[in-house]
Amino acid sequence: MRRYWHLATLLTTIVLVPNATMQAQHEEHAMSAGGTSGSGAAAPSTLSPSVARDIARLRTATAPFKSLDSAVAAGYARAVAQCISHPQLGGMGYHHQNSALVDGKLEVEHPEILVYRRAPGGAYELTGVEYEVPYAVAPRDSTPPTIMGQPLKRFDAIKMWYLHVWPWLENPAGMFADWNPRVTCG
Fold first, then answer.
1. Of 77, 88, 97, 168, which has the fewest beta carbons less than 10 angstroms from its beta carbon?
2. Using CA atoms, how far apart are residues 112 and 125, in angstroms rounded to an integer?
């Protein structure tokens, strides 16, 4: 019996601690960036014409990824263990990364991460994207990389610059806010 107790303790440590750490890191990166919004957190109707064009390009490029199977076929991860949420600010959702795109090149049509939420019936629903640039390419102390006229924010825990964009689910906190109150993980 004692052997099983030790095994259960070990498995709990291996499985639960990294998930809790990852949740804490995501909360840290959004909270350190000002909580609910970043620069340019504007409603779609108040976006500049050039940003509105970029959002339209992003929607066209990511429309096929409304199907998670299509996203997986394009190189995005299928399995994501955790939905990221905050009790007061809302959620970020499930982050499906395409590791091949984490190369330091920011392209509107090729986000490094697709963000999904679970619809009431259990299906995945594409809600947003996240752009990322590793510190190895753009060091932490350098000028932040930009996309769509928005500077990326620091996420020191994983040594990345990042920016959320919500082209598929209106975000009352803004198009470029970290958290979307309409995304829940419950």
1. 88
2. 17
